[in-house]
Amino acid sequence: MKWAIIGTWRMCLEGVQKAAALLEKGGKASDAVETAIKEVEDFPFYKSVGYGGLPNEHCEVELDAAFMDGDTFSFGAVAGVRDIKNPISLARRLSRERFNIFLVGQGAEEFAHKNLFQRQNMLTERAKTMWEIRMKKVREGNLSPYDGHDTVGIVALDTLGSMSAGTSTSGLFMKKRGRVGDSPLCGAGLYVDSDVGGAAATGLGEDIMKGCLSYEVVRLMEEGYAPEKAASEALNRFLKKMSDKGRKVGAISLICLDKEGRWGIGTNVEFSFVVADEENGAKVLLARPEKGEVIVKEASEEWLRSYEERLKNPPELNL
Questions:
Q1: Is 159 annotated as catalytic?
Q2: 267-294 burial string, b = 16+ CB within 10 Å, else e?
Q3: Binding residues for substrate, per the UniProt record (predicted)?
Q4: N or C: which end of the chain has fewer CB within 10 A?
Q5: Set 151, 167, 169, 267: catalytic member
């Protein structure tokens, strides 16, 4: 059995590289998922996840995360968590419980404290400055408060055939206090079955959760759809349903991986993602929708350099 891993956005590259090294040595998919996501959570310049994540309307960083084991369907999630380092680890810890597997706000924080999870102020000066700039622009009436909502989602397969998936996000920039999107919701933000495959979503959670899109991708793979077809088919069917109901849909991107290590993408926007397997090191790929299909190409050196430059731009240039 070969190993493989896929993750949303360029921001997961370093995490996928670490996770790939673990899988290469026969490590577990569950550990690989947590390793990859922790790497993103810990890096302050990735502004939509973990430390340095984008604040809510009150300039508070509220974090959501989820973890699922494809062998047992064990699931754990947290939402609206403040000042707890690595919410993905907290979600994974909850997945080992029989009851109370999804905790929010104060309850999740109390559980974290009792179980000795590290506390950390997740609001950085950089994120606070970005919030102040956004507030000024919103008051001037020329900018939406809700731009910026990228989730890191990871799906991994190990050499024993086990699969796991995880997500982590700070949610919509300047969201209402207590708002929760799709990321920590089983079946919406993520879903995995080691007998079939797994999927994760990123984009506008208010729309993704309406289609239970991660579950739908896995369901289609179980019916026999190849991963690349399952992801696009799930998204296109949902987009048509919403259009038939006269509703607009925001940005949505789906990643999936089947039990053979084959991957697929569905997206209605240009989207970057990272893949690695036993034959190929971690690489950044770009996907874009075109006439109901998804065109995928490897990111150029120029694109990667531009990304690095944008990542550490002054806050006023990142809005």
A1: no
A2: bbeebbbbbbbeeeebebbbbebeeeeb
A3: 179-182, 202-205
A4: N
A5: 151
What are the structural domains, with CATH classification, of the chain? 4-317 (3.60.20.30)
Among candidates 37, 19, 55, 30, which has minimal Cα distance to 315?
Answer: 55
3-state secondary structure (DSSP) of residue 145:
coil
Residue that has been written with the tokens 């990142």 in this structure: 318
Write the DSSP string, 21-54: HHHHTT--HHHHHHHHHHHHHH-TT-TTSSTTPP
pLDDT tens over the chain, length 319 residues: 699 999 999 999 999 999 999 999 999 999 999 999 999 999 999 989 999 999 999 999 999 999 999 999 999 999 999 999 999 999 999 999 999 999 999 999 999 999 999 999 999 999 999 999 888 888 877 666 666 568 999 999 999 999 999 999 999 999 999 999 999 999 999 999 999 999 999 999 999 999 999 999 999 999 999 999 999 999 999 999 999 999 999 999 999 999 999 999 999 999 999 999 999 999 999 999 998 789 999 999 999 999 999 888 877 656 5
- DSSP H or E run through 8: strand 4-8
Binding residues for substrate, by number, are: 179-182, 202-205
